[in-house]
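Consider the following assembly input.
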Amino acid sequence: MQLSRTSRWSLRTITYLTIGIVYLPLAIVLVLSFNDSNALVWPPRGFTTHWWSTLTDVESAREALATSARIGIIAMLIAVVLGSLLAFGLQRFEFFGKNTLSFLAVLPIALPGIVTGVALRNTFVRFGWDLGYLSVVVGHATFCIVVVYNNVVARLRRLSPNLREASADLGAQPWQTFRYVTWPLMRSAVAAGAILAFALSFDEVVVTTFTAGAGVSTLPQWILNNFSRPNVLPYVTVVATIVMVISLPVAWLAQRLSDGPRER
Amino acid sequence: MHPVHRVGQRLERAPGLVPGLSRFFGARRRLALGTVVSGPLLWLVVVYLGSLALLVTSAFFRLDDFTGKSTSEWTVDNLDEAFTTGAYRTLVIRSVLIAASATLVCICIALPVAFYISRLARSWAKRGLVVALTIPLWAGYLVKAYALRAIFEPGGDNGGGFLNSVLGASPGFGYTATIVTLAYLWFPYMLLPVYTGFERLPDALLDASSDLGAGTLRTFRSVIFPLLIPSIAAGSIFTFSLSLGDYITVKVVGGTTQMIGNIIERTLLAPNQPLAAAFTLWPIGIMIVYLAVMGRLGAFKNL
Amino acid sequence: MKRARKVFTLSAVAMLTLAACGGDDGGGSGSDLPKELGEGEGAVNLVAWAGYVEDGSTDPAVDWVTSFEEETGCEVNVKIGNTSDEMVELMQSGEYDAVSASGDATLRLIAGGDVAPVNTELIPNYADVFDDLKNKPWNSVDGVSYGVPHGRGANVLAYNSEAGPAPTSIKDMFDPASPWAGKISVYDSPIYIADAAIYLMATQPELGITDPYALDADQFAAAIEALKTQESIVGQYWSLYTDQQAALESGSVTLGTSWQVIVNLASANAPSVMATKAEDGATGWSDTWMISSKAKHPNCAYKWLNHIISPEANAGVAEWFGEAPSNAKSCDLTADPNHCTTYHAGETEYWTNVYYWTTPTENCLDGRTDVKCIPYTEWVNAWNELRA
């Protein structure tokens, strides 16, 4: 497609300007992690590496990280199994009411988190179940299922049915077709969905606030609580920077997996 | 080809759990379907829909004035309060407008950016650019919100605030800051589907359009945009819903502004659980309508 | 689909039936007072006002939690409640063991059966508490004590001395022509309506308000009007205390209803921030530590109650927060020897003009029987509508 020089130039400018704006707040977080002050305000008051060097002493940060990781992994595993099953079922079979089910499968993410959180909390309290780890996992798994489902269903749609037919023509049983043909083609989508589900759970704060028990503190909750604790607040910027850096290769991996097996 | 054929024949009568199950379910499609979706279906229906149903019914109970607990008396007062009070209606309209504005901002930025990455960027750079723009998703919602707060801080006599320091002025906390922050936070959710949509556009179509003499803007308006509507609709589901229900961002950068999420949280913590449940009917209703419209536009084929 | 629909309908019906049959009733009985304390359970979950349970995370030198944890082996988890309403909601969930409740929460908690009577004989330090705090209408029912007093104080007016002279009256908070207009900070809770009532007591005495928590329909409507007018000059509605602190420091707020602890923290970074008390009267609090009726760690909870009203801890928190301690012996232990005098710790007459946070009820709290007063749920509804 032919584009005028102006169009080309303006599109490039918009893109790089956007990237710059997108990273501005993150850069501010990085700068503030060296700020010699208790508050998250700009401009920085002085330079110090105190927060970085004493991070390992902050026990609450370690616990919060561990809690978030644990909950994230469990929610991710549940989501991988249930989300893939659901995608497989909805993609592979034709049945009446399929559209309703597809609609239903999107609801946990389409309805605002506060609705999910309030609804789940109401259910737990009504039945007298203790709020704690399990309640948070249930909340997280619910929207994680949707993420995995989205990824897997998108991939399954892109797979040509010819491959399956060919496999069946050659005499393979359905489970063999699955194992040798379908699964290799869809597993990267499952992996991408799993990574995204973990990321979503790791960063989630609204549903967690409403479903967590007294002793549970995930990383986002720890951050939220620290806004009332000026002496621990600066560590939030340090932890955030570390998480950002660690997520660089993970985000790259997720994008690569979701592109799929050698597209284009 | 041959090995599979031979293997297939041999396994026709092979013993073993997996081949056995495979034969069993292969012949009974409905049972296979049922088994595959029953797990997730059970979860979604019982846990999620059940909770929603419970929430909706809880809106019909009266609150005991003094203890702050739900009684077993049925009443429509809560719904009456939530749906007929003028102040709350204004609040809902305001929330919808803010969410729509944030979505529009996302669309306006995602379209040119996705176009550039998909069509104009070098092929080795494409994935890098997409990753670069989606990394912030991993940076942590709260931290980003507070960073944007530091940016919008109007400062005062003691200085402060990024925009205030750099430009000398800042829109301060309020609608502008809220819309910009929401758009910033949810931008990757719009970019990804739109980018995927661009990638699927056949080159031939665009070439044909220029061959027929259409300029860039005309091609965009008549060819590209209509084809992208499903992707835009898909992306907008996330940005609209996340913006509509958000109550933390508004507290951080919105100044005295309140959105529907705030009134739900505030009422729940009052404590007045039935009235809070009544308020949640607003976003539930709005999103169901929104999802239906977006579904019409093809969003679900494109998630 | 048919099967799915059946499953959905069945489970929905099942849930609804269970929900309709179940349902919380109030009624914690007073008959199960513990007779003696057992071993600590290893942890205790508290709901507290910001500044009441300090473990060094706000200021490394301010810590009365670590000594408690070392002595009793009870690890402390604290959830900060920003308003009394939040605290009531948290206690209703049954997840927490003890709460520092203000008067506008205590009776609601008692009526809702969320807190249990407290056997004060198991709390040795209770003996040293000022007598005029024991067995008051907000912390006891029919002579049965429901908690131990924490301390009391009055809400202050925080102001920036560079923006103007110290305000003397609450009128500066409400008057549209106020010199502080646009940079005023208001506490975001329905209980603030009482402050509007105090404003009316000073500016519209013909309304006949004697108790800001006993408002009949006309008085209440006038208070809401005053608050609506106030909206145009308000810059911030705060519930998280660090939000007001940050605004005071940066200068975007120059006047507001506040607590002494916030002013102390803000003035450390912005020395021109100071506190004063309005002459026409102020709302205040007299807080009580209460124990949940569903406490999972009741022994640790009792130990905490004993610790927080011990002379050292009570002195620490009274000085940090800026309030009068409840333990008479704390007055000798405060770093500032005049602390108790400044905060009127032992002066019973002083407190008759401070309107402690209380739950408004239909039966007028000022004793009037000819009219009905507006109950708290209406306060909540009115405040929500105001803020929407």
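The radius of gyration of chain A is 23 Å. Ask yourself how this observation constrains the way the partners meet.
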